[in-house]
C-alpha cells in the first residue's frame, strides 16, 4: 500500500506507488509496470462444446455477424506495402456508395437528409466534448458551449421562455430528451404516476421501467391522438397521486399531435391544481414544425408544462442523432440543491457530450432562421398532402393528420419494396414522413414504382389489399369493403 | 375524428383527416394545415417584473450566456450580400484557432487528441444512425452496423468472450456504459444492492438514484482502490440480498485499478455463490490498457463478471464521445424474453445511435491493431513515470499507481495556470493523464512552466505548499512536514 514505506527500484528511479500485496504475489521480483505482455494479440475464444450451444436461445438476431467488417491486425510490412490503407480505402469507398444509394431511396424515417456541413469539416480533427452542464464550464477547454447555449436560446425563444428561466442541453437523441423529461417529472413528484398514450414512443415506457415508476397507458383516437375521455377515466381513481404526463407532439407512427390544451383541461376538471402535475412534451419531430403552422395547438412554456424535447437530426438535419431538451430552471435547481441527490456535478443524463452536434445545429439555425424553417414546414405539409391525394387517387388506403407530414398508408405487400424505400411499418400500415429533402420528383418516382408493382401483387383477384379501417378509419380505407 | 365522414375542401382536393373537434373550434371555417403563422420570428420573452427575479436562486452558473454565440435571423438580402456566410466563416475560423490552442495545452483529461480521420471526412454528409440493436437490422438503411459489430468482435476477443456468447453496442460515452451495465445488473437481480467504492465515477451513483436502487459506498485505500476489508464488513449484514458491484478499472481521479480477483474472493468468502452477484467493470480509460500490461489483473469474461464498458474517445481517440459496452447474451436474452418488460425493440439505453462513432473506432483499431495499442500503452506508462519522477525531483508531491498513467500531484496554486493546462482538480490534488498524444517534449514544456511559476507562488516563506499526505500517502508528500 502506498504510505507503507516500501520502495522498489523501477527503471532506475525510486517509486512509492507499489502495493505490498502485489509485491508479495510477485515473490519480491521487482514489478515493472511498463513491461508488456509477450503476445498482445488475444486468442480467438472458442466454444466449449456444442451441447451447451444447442440449448442456447437466440432471441436477438445475430445476422449482422455474417456481413460485418472484421477488424484485422496490421501486418508488419503494411506501412511499406500500403496494403492495409488500400484495403480500408476500398471498404470506405464501397460504403460511401451504399450510403449514397440508401440516402436516395429513403422515405420512412423522419430524418432530413438534406444538409451541407462542408464548412464544418475542419472541426472533425478535434475531440470536442461538452462535459456535463452547458452552463457550468469545466476545465476541459475543447468544448462548444458557446454554440450550445446559442442554440438553446433560439429554442427558448421559440417555446416562449425567458433565458433566465430555463435550463436545457443538447442531447444525444430524442430518447435522451424523454428520459430526461420524465426523470425531472419523477424527481418533482417522487410518487407521481406516469400517464402516456399507447401510441407514445417506446422510450417513454422504457423510462418507466428504468425509473421504477407506476405507468398507466391511455387509449388513443383513430388519428393517434390521446383519448382524453379515457385519460379522465384513468385519472379519477388515482387522484391521491400527482400526475406525470407524456404529451406527444407528433406520434411515431401516425404523426398525431396530442391536444395539449384538452389534456390540461382534463387535468383541471379532475381536480388537479397546477402544482400537482408535470407535463413533458415529446416533440421529437413536430416540436420544431408546429410553431410555424397557423392554428396548431401551441407548445409554449406560457402553459403549465414542465419540459419539451425535440430531435436535432430530424427536421433540422444532422450527420448524427442529437436533440434539444428544455425545462424550467426551478426544477433543475430543486434537483441540484442537494448535490448528493443526483450524485452528479450536472443534471444531464450523459456525462460526456458530443460537442460537434451543437455546432451543426447552430450552423443550420443561423442559415435558415425562423423564417427559413417556416418555409420548409410549409413545403413539407404541401408535399405530404400531394402524396396522400395521389395515393387515394390510385385507390390506396391512406391517412394524413391535419398537422402532420406523416402519410400513413397500406403496407406494401413486398418486403423487398419496403426495404428498398426504407419504410417503417406496423401491422398493415406503412408510413412516409415528408421531410424537407423529399421533393415532388422523389414522391412521383416512388408513386410510379408503387402503383406499378402493386398491380402485380394484386393481379390475382383472390389476393386482396388489406383493410385499414381499424387503423386509419373507414373513410381513409380503400379496401374492397370500404371503397 | 377521422372516420366521421367529414369532408372539407383543402387546396382543391378532398381530405378526410380532419377532426370534428377542430372544425367546431374554427367555426366551420376551412382549416388549411399549410397556412403558416404571419410572423414566424417569435417575440423575445421578457421578464414579468424584477420582484420575482430577486427571489430566484441561481444554483447553476449562467456565465456561458455572456460568451455564447447568438443565433441570428438571416437578413432578406443575405444571399446576395454574402454577409451571413462571411460572419459564420469568421466565427468558425476564430473557433478553430481556439481549439488548436486548447488542444495544445491539454493534460488533465483522459482524451487521446492525436488522431487523423481525414479519410472519413467524406462520410460527414450522411445522417448515419444505428437505430436500436446492433444485431437487429432496422429498415433505415443509412447505418454502420457492419462496422459496429466488427468493433464489438475486436473487444470481445480482447476480453475473452465468444462471438455467440456476448451482446453489446457502441454507446455515446462511458456514462452510458455504466448506466447500461448497472441496469442489466438490476434486471438480473431486482432486489440486489449496488456496491461501489466512493472513488467510483459519479455516473455510478447517478444510476443508483435513477434506478431507485439501494446503494452502499465502500471505502478506498490511499491508492484509490476499493478497500475489500470494508467491502466485507458491508456485505456481511446484507447477505440475504444479491450483490451488484461496480469495479473500477481505473478510477477517475487517481487511476486506481480495483483488484477484481480480491473482490470476487471477498464475495465468495462472504458466502455469495456466482449466481448471487453481478459485476460491472467500469473500464472507462484503462479497460483498453490493462490487457497489454504484464501481470495487470486481467479483465476477462472467463471470470464471473457480467459486463465491461470502456470509452472510445479516451485511449482510442475520437472526435466525439463514445464507448463500448459488452455483456453476456444470456442477460440480454433474459431481458428481451418479455418485450413488454423493457417496452422496447432493443436493449440499448438510447434509441437512435451515432453511426459515425463505430466507423472512427473501426478505422483506428484496423490501423493500430492489438500490437499498436500495446506500444502506445507502454509509451504512456514510461512517460507517466518520467513525469512523476521529474515532479518528485523538483520537490513536488506526486503519486503514480503502478498500473496507471494518471499522475496525481499538488494542485497548482494559480487557477489561471490550472485552466491554461486544463487540469482536473479535487481538493489539494490535480492530475495529468498521460495519453498517447502527450510527449516528453510536452511534459517538459509543462514542467518548466510549473517549476518556474511555482517558485513565485511560494516565494513568500509564509505561504507553504499544501500537505498531500492524506490524499496520496506520506511517502509521496513533499510538504514541509513530510520531506
TrEMBL record, chains A, B:
Catalytic activity: L-serine + H(+) = ethanolamine + CO2
Gene3D superfamilies (alphabetical): Aspartate Aminotransferase, domain 1 (3.90.1150.10), Type I PLP-dependent aspartate aminotransferase-like (Major domain) (3.40.640.10)
GO-annotated molecular function: carboxy-lyase activity
Cofactors named for this entry: pyridoxal 5'-phosphate
InterPro entries, sorted: Group_II_Decarboxylase, PyrdxlP-dep_de-COase, PyrdxlP-dep_Trfase, PyrdxlP-dep_Trfase_major, PyrdxlP-dep_Trfase_small, Pyridoxal-P_BS
NCBIfam families: PRK02769.1
UniProt protein name: Histidine decarboxylase
Amino acid at each position: 500500500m502506498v504510505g507503507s514505506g516500501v520502495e522498489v527500484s523501477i527503471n532506475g528511479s525510486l517509486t512509492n506507488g507499489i502495493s505490498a500485496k502485489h509485491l508479495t504475489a510477485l515473490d519480491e521480483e521487482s514489478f515493472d509496470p511498463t513491461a508488456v505482455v509477450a503476445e498482445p494479440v488475444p486468442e480467438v475464444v472458442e466454444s466449449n462444446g456444442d451441447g451447451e450451444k444447442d440449448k442456447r436461445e437466440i432471441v436477438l438476431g445475430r445476422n449482422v455477424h455474417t456481413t460485418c467488417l472484421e477488424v484485422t491486425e496490421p501486418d508488419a510490412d503494411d506501412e511499406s506495402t500500403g496494403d492495409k490503407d488500400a484495403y480500408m480505402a476500398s471498404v470506405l469507398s464501397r460504403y460511401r456508395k451504399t450510403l449514397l444509394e440508401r440516402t436516395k431511396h429513403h422515405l420512412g424515417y423522419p430524418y432530413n437528409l438534406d444538409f451541407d456541413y462542408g464548412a464544418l469539416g475542419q472541426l472533425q480533427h478535434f475531440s470536442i466534448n461538452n462535459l456535463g452542464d452547458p452552463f457550468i464550464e469545466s476545465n476541459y477547454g475543447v468544448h462548444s458551449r458557446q454554440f450550445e447555449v446559442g442554440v438553446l436560446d433560439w429554442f427558448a425563444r421559440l417555446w416562449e421562455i425567458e433565458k433566465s428561466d430555463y435550463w436545457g442541453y443538447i442531447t444525444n437523441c430524442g430518447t435522451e430528451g424523454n428520459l430526461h423529461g420524465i426523470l425531472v417529472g419523477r424527481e418533482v413528484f417522487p410518487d407521481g404516476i406516469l400517464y402516456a398514450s399507447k401510441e407514445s414512443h417506446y422510450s417513454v415506457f422504457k423510462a418507466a421501467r428504468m425509473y421504477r415508476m407506476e405507468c398507466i397507458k391511455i387509449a388513443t383516437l383513430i388519428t393517434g391522438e390521446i383519448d382524453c375521455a379515457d385519460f379522465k377515466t384513468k385519472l379519477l381513481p388515482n387522484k391521491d397521486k400527482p400526475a406525470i404526463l407524456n404529451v406527444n407532439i407528433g406520434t411515431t407512427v401516425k404523426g398525431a399531435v396530442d391536444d395539449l390544451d384538452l389534456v390540461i383541461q382534463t387535468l383541471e376538471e379532475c381536480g388537479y391544481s397546477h402544482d400537482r402535475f408535470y407535463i413533458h412534451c415529446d416533440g421529437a419531430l413536430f416540436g420544431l414544425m408546429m410553431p410555424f403552422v397557423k392554428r396548431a395547438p401551441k407548445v409554449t412554456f406560457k402553459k403549465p408544462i414542465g419540459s419539451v424535447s425535440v430531435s436535432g437530426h430530424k427536421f433540422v438535419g444532422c450527420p448524427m442523432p442529437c436533440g434539444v431538451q428544455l425545462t424550467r430552471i426551478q426544477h433543475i435547481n430543486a434537483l441540484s440543491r442537494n448535490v448528493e441527490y443526483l450524485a452528479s456535478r450536472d443534471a444531464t443524463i450523459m456525462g460526456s457530450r458530443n460537442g460537434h452536434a451543437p455546432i451543426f445545429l447552430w450552423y443550420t439555425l443561423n442559415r435558415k432562421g425562423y423564417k427559413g424553417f417556416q418555409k420548409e414546414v410549409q413545403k413539407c405539409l404541401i408535399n405530404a398532402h400531394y402524396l396522400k391525394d395521389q395515393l387515394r387517387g390510385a385507390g390506396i388506403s391512406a391517412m394524413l393528420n391535419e398537422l402532420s407530414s406523416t402519410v400513413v398508408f397500406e403496407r406494401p405487400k413486398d418486403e423487398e419494396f419496403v426495404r428498398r424505400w426504407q419504410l417503417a411499418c406496423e401491422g398493415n400500415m406503412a408510413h412516409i414522413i415528408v421531410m424537407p429533402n423529399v421533393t415532388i420528383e422523389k414522391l412521383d418516382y416512388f408513386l410510379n414504382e408503387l402503383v406499378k408493382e402493386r398491380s402485380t401483387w394484386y393481379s390475382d383477384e383472390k389476393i386482396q389489399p388489406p383493410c385499414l379501417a381499424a387503423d386509419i378509419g373507414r373513410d381513409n380505407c380503400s379496401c374492397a369493403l370500404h371503397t
